[in-house]
Design a protein that fits this description.
It catalyses: ATP + protein L-histidine = ADP + protein N-phospho-L-histidine. Keywords: Kinase, Phosphoprotein, Transferase. This is histidine kinase. It holds the Pfam family ANTAR. With 226 residues, the chain is α+β, with helices and mostly antiparallel strands. The chain has two domains: 108 residues, no CATH class; 101 residues, 2-Layer Sandwich (Beta-Lactamase). It contains nine helices and five strands. Strands 2-1-5-4-3 form a five-stranded antiparallel β-sheet. A hairpin with a 4-residue loop joins strand 1 and strand 2.
């Protein structure tokens, strides 16, 4: 995992003013290996489902947490993984305590050192609305150092809102997560998202695939992304 070094002071100010200092961003990884039909997940994803660190996930366990209203989406996601497909899904799960969690799941093919696809790997992002009401005023009155960046960030948020069916605050949290996790400026992440929009105009499925790819490869040199 990439070292989490400090982003620029302007980017940090944007995060602190808009999302709130210390606001927890719950993100964890998962993998599914085709050869052994084995799931793996990080302690963070285990916790999202209500389990202790080290709990071994299975298809049956994942399905047991499906929300009644999102049953089809969760089953389609798991089927896609087991059939070898990459996917993204915004759905709800119910943890072991009965709490409903709103999650965004993004994945791409998992490759070995030779480039052969051996599974699917990606992230769970808990976008459950637990923070204070989104403070848009901060963008307009307290961030003079990032006014120019605001437009592209808002465009990127809009794209994520459309593709993943999430709120403006949740979209910003996803952009912030990738910035912190990859040590790439938030504005740069937003610019890469926006750059994909004209390439797949009018095709929401292709746009979702491209945005999945951008989020998962933001830290990689352009020469090895494709």
């Amino acid at each position: 995992m990439t070292d989490r070094r400090d982003v620029s002071s302007d980017e940090r100010l944007l995060v602190e003013r808009v999302v709130g200092v210390g606001d927890p961003l719950r993100v964890g990884w998962f993998r599914y290996r085709f050869g052994t039909h084995r799931w793996e997940w990080s302690d963070e994803v285990a916790a999202m489902h209500g389990y202790a660190p080290g709990t071994q996930p299975t298809t049956e366990l994942l399905l047991s947490h499906k929300h009644p209203r999102d049953r089809d989406r969760l089953e389609a996601m798991i089927t896609s993984v087991e059939d070898g497909g990459a996917f993204s899904s915004h759905h709800r799960i119910v943890d072991t305590n009965g709490q409903v969690r709103d999650v965004l799941v993004v994945s791409e093919p998992w490759r070995d050192e030779s480039g052969a696809v051996i599974g699917t790997a990606g992230y769970y992002i808990d976008v459950t609305e637990t923070a204070e009401e989104f403070r848009r005023e901060a963008l307009d009155t307290t961030l003079p150092g990032v006014l120019e960046a605001r437009t592209v960030i808002e465009q990127a948020k809009g794209a994520l809102m459309l593709v993943y069916a999430i709120s403006a605050e949740q979209a910003f949290r996803v952009l912030r997560w990738r910035s912190q996790e990859t040590n790439v400026k938030l504005r740069t992440i937003a610019e890469r998202v926006v750059a994909e929009l004209p390439k797949v105009a009018g095709d929401e499925v292709k746009l979702r695939t491209r945005l999945d790819h951008v989020l998962l490869t933001a830290h990689m040199p352009d020469s090895v992304k494709e």
